[in-house]
Amino acid sequence: MNDIDGRPGASSALADETIFSVIHAAHALEDKLEEALEKAHLSMPKYSVLKELVSAGEALSLGELASRLSCVRSNMTQLVDRLEADGLVRRVACPTDRRSVKAEITEAGRDRQAEGSKEVTRLQDAVASSVPVEDRATLVRLLAHLK
Amino acid sequence: MNDIDGRPGASSALADETIFSVIHAAHALEDKLEEALEKAHLSMPKYSVLKELVSAGEALSLGELASRLSCVRSNMTQLVDRLEADGLVRRVACPTDRRSVKAEITEAGRDRQAEGSKEVTRLQDAVASSVPVEDRATLVRLLAHLK
DNA sequence: TATGTACAATTCATGCATGAACGATATTGA
DNA sequence: TCAATATCGTTCATGCATGAATTGTACATA
User: Fold this and answer.
1) CA atoms of B101 and B95, how far apart (whole Å)
2) Quick one: average pLDDT of B69-92?
3) What are the start-end ranges of the H helices in chain B?
4) Closest protein residue to C23 (Cα–C1')
5) Whether B91 CB is under 7 Å from strand D
6) CATH number of B42-124
């Protein structure tokens, strides 16, 4: 006796506003993440770039970075501008393709990424442990589903 | 035998990147929503304001709108600027408090909100029906949890 | 009543995201 | 070889979000 309004699809305790609820919940999570990273003086986009550079283990072109972080190139241009101003990254010319510019992480960048990572891990643990054990498998499944 | 890395909290198939997965999934959902609303020539923030005004059934002060949509006032100032430029809303002076400005929806605004609502409902149904029946209760529970 | 405090909206600076237009360089194919 | 085409990064215009500073108004109380 759910599906009160009789619309097909809106059944079984899935409210009319589920989409907004999910988005809202994610935003709340995002805010927590931003808050945690702030302790390391980093924003999420900046942290993502540093993390990518560290895990790649080498300098990456701006286009490659944009592609890996799923954003447009012009965004990466600005982001790297800011990271460069912070001294966390530096632009280096690509020797094999003169159109391309690579972003190389600096020592300061490495340090900041490590600090950020600590904070992220802390939050990660807190959030993970707040998810009821019996719901974890479902969460993972839902996530895979909504890809 | 989960919890491979042995960190407390990071257990039972909850990967190290769960936070990012959730945020990423929500962003994907958000993109779909933006895409749907685009058919009604609306952005999510604009739609939210119109929806709030319709459901309130009366003009609301910018501060009230900001508070209901959980954003800062300066943001609402700009948003209403754009909505006003679109002819979907109009500013009216508050008779009882000369500091306050109310946003009143126009006829065009009402129409657009209705169009947007149709698109949102369509997407809502599609998403809802893509969530496995046996996972729905859990989803609702998780959402309530992450409030 | 005058004054200090609280509150409303705005403006400004900044960050982050997009897409269009552009110049420089690579690559392809006639 | 050289003209068309594709790709790379940048710039610019725009939207949306924040917080700080400002202006105008309301209100409490000394």
Assistant:
1) 9
2) 98
3) 18-38, 44-56, 62-68, 73-85, 107-130, 136-145
4) A99
5) no
6) 1.10.10.10
Q: Does B121 touch chain A (CB under 8 A)?
A: yes
The average pLDDT across B15-34 equals 85
Task: Report B:14-33 residues touching A (Cβ under 8 A).
Answer: 14-16, 18-19, 21-23, 25-30, 33
Q: Do A33 and B23 touch (CB under 8 A)?
A: yes
Architecture in CATH of A42-125: Orthogonal Bundle (1.10)
| Residue B142 pLDDT > 90 | no
Neighbours of B40 (CB within 10 A): 19
Amino acid at B40: A
Q: What is the pTM of this model?
A: 0.88
Of residues B18, B27, B137, nearest to A128 (C-beta): B18
| Domain ranges for chain A | 42-125
Query: Over the range A80-105, which residues count as b (16 or more CB within 10 Å of their CB) and which as e?
Result: beebeeeebbeeeeeeeeeeebbbeb
Residue A118 in tokens:
């600590």
Q: A45 near A35, Cβ under 8 Å?
A: no
B135 chain-A contacts, CB cut-off 8 A:
138, 141-142
Structure tokens at B142: 């998780």
